[in-house]
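To illustrate the input format used throughout this study, we show a single complete record. The first block contains the structure-token representation of the backbone; no residue identities are included at this stage. The design step must infer an amino acid for every position from geometry alone.
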């Protein structure tokens, strides 16, 4: 039996962002799929409705994949694909599989010989790097930093050392309600001459992107990053 295709479908990265920028390819795929694997089903239902695909949301099948999904549940999620039906994976925001729990399912699809098709869309990580003025030739995404302050400070210093010795931009993110504390830790742990980009609410109505030295950040007004999705880059 011919297997289905897993489409990696991008979604807006800012809360309340419009879907006008969706490519025709994304709209076409949204308009014909019946099965969706979502980080948050409610978010994806709204996303499909706003994309004006003309689909009756009640006729579509949704399965949830998030940080609570157990490894043994992944086989259930790919059952429609193994049965020959196409499916779409949609993240809470941005690109599925990037800073997102979808990677394990994608790897499982490869192991089962299921074709995976990535569709183009916004990535807050690359958009932050694009607008940073920092090294876009060599960079690393480090995900989330440790939660406990002592370990987080050590991690920040390690990233700063790598940025300095390798001239490699170091990108990391944080849960929005911890943004302010993380920024304080960066300013405390890093040298005054280290460059820091803070990018918040990218593509949203309150978008804020600025690069300064840590020394300049220490003297500047606090950026509007409390409880807002943000990306940090140091070099």
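Output of the design step:
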């Amino acid at each position: 039996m011919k297997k289905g295709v897993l489409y990696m479908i991008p979604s807006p990265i800012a809360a309340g962002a419009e879907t006008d920028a969706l490519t025709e390819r994304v709209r076409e795929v949204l308009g014909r799929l019946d099965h969706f694997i979502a980080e948050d089903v409610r978010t994806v239902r709204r996303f499909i409705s706003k994309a004006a695909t003309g689909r009756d949301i009640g006729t579509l099948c949704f399965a949830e994949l998030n940080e609570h999904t157990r490894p043994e549940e992944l086989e259930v999620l790919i059952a429609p694909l193994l049965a020959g039906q196409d499916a779409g994976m949609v993240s809470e925001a941005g690109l599925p599989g990037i800073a997102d729990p979808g990677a394990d399912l994608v790897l499982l699809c490869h192991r089962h010989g299921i074709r995976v098709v990535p569709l183009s869309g916004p990535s807050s990580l690359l958009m932050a790097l694009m607008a940073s003025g920092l090294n876009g030739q060599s960079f690393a995404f480090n995900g989330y930093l440790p939660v406990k302050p002592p370990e987080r400070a050590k991690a920040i210093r390690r990233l700063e050392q790598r940025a300095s010795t390798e001239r490699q931009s170091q990108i990391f993110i944080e849960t929005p309600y911890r943004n302010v504390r993380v920024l304080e830790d960066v300013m405390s742990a890093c040298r005054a001459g280290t460059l820091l980009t803070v990018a918040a609410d990218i593509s949203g109505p309150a978008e804020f992107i600025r690069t300064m030295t840590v020394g300049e950040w220490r003297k500047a007004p606090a950026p509007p990053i409390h409880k807002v999705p943000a990306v940090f880059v140091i070099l």
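Structural context for interpreting the output: The first helix runs from residue 24 to 30. The mean pLDDT is 92.
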